[in-house]
Here is the input.
Amino acid sequence: MAQIRDIKSVRNGEPPREPTPRRLAAIVAADISGYSRLMQIDEEGTHNRVKRIERDLIEPSITEHHGKLVKTTGDGFIAIFDSPVEAVRCSIVIQQNLVGRNASLPVHHWIEYRIGVNLGDVIIEADDVYGDGVNIAARLEGIAYPGQVYISGGVYEQIKHKLVCGYEALGDRKVKNITDPVRVYRVLSDPSALRGSRKHRETILIALLSVALIIIAGGALWYMLVQPRKLINQASAPVPSPAEAQGAPAPVASSPPPPPARTAAPNQHQTAVQPGPSPASKKAASLPPSASPITPASQPTTQAAPIPEPEMISLRGGSFAMGSNEDFTEKPIRQVTVKPLAMGKFPITVQEWNACAAAKSCGFSAAGKDDAPVTNVSWSDARQYVAWLAETTGKAYRLPSEAEWEYAARGGTQTRYWWGDQFQPGMVNCKGCSDIPINDQPVKVGSLKPNPFGLFDMGGGVDQWVEDCWHKTYQGAPADGSAWVENECPSHVIRSGSWRKASDYARTSSRSNYDTNVRYPTHGFRVVLSLKER
Here is the structure.
């Protein structure tokens, strides 16, 4: 039919229609829960807040995760992504950021999105997308709770081993205008939440089973105590003689004389019961004279593996011009003074991170080679590691401030890169910067040249968290090298660029930010230590 219409249009002088483009894509559909109620409370204020969220949060998040905002719908939006991993990661960032925005507001003024994500075949037009792939995402959004992200089974199969988060299976759901049931999962940005909910259900089940066991055990104990007593009473009752059976009185039996008292004499075979030898003394008696019993104090224990403490480089500190005029976020250029410190020679490695994970102090075990930098770490994860390292070693390890990081990255220079103003291939591990292929993990630490301070991978490799909250410019930033922080901030500064980013991100002044509690595959960190603490 399409061919017939095209031929017909040609005959009428019209150009033939282009075939409708279709492709597989991840669709994110979102809307605001209770939007009508919010508009009734404060129409103008709600409208302005929603537009601000779209401008400051939703659009940048979609762009940062390589997606495209298809359209906004007043109380929601639809976005399209090539990768379901990026679609879900973007959804988590939006939801977690909104938690921080709502924290200072009354509950009835909260703006909460419900988000559905589906992977399916869609029809793409200039300003919209169509098809069941979009419809299922919209239906998932419709059944999601406020602040939640629901995904389809197709998305789950693609991301289940690629994101560090939890998933709660909600079963197959029949949704409107979709023929087959849709398998639904709820995304839990904190995997422990799923374990917590399961643990709660398990606790209730265990409690009920315990009550049942107590009742059963109580009944059995009652039976064991009462029934034998009845049997004993029956067995000890005198058997009536034939005369008694016929009503004659029974003769009174004379009571036997009491048994003589037993007194234990020391020289008799009977001895008083003494406490027996302990198992330890028995074991000691059986050992040869050259051996000694192993007491708990002397018993050898499995030697704990030494903590892989990061190698540090001492820096004298000093003043330098921080920032640049290349990007508005790096302005204004200002003079900053940094105190003496020790900076990690390398980013924290997989081996160093997994020592913390083995101690149950870090949230997950990292995959990859031991000498590669750890990745997929949130700012909160990095803080967990430094807290564990400081407590274990007794040294005040911490994340560097943004000023300390840039001072160390420059290595005493004021150029775009630590080696000069012009980019040189092979100096950093970044996208298109060398003949090193882009893999799932950056190259091992120390693979490339160090900067003049002897620090490796201060540019490229992995994005590196610093202590500072994110501010769009340096206006008002401290000049003493300390971190610029508030009580709570939804996002923190990351530096260095990564093996998946272009060379511009590896500039010494380049800066970016990411959500505080969200993990990302290119994010890692390094640690610092005040020299007086070493």
Notes: The chain is about 30% helix and 20% strand.
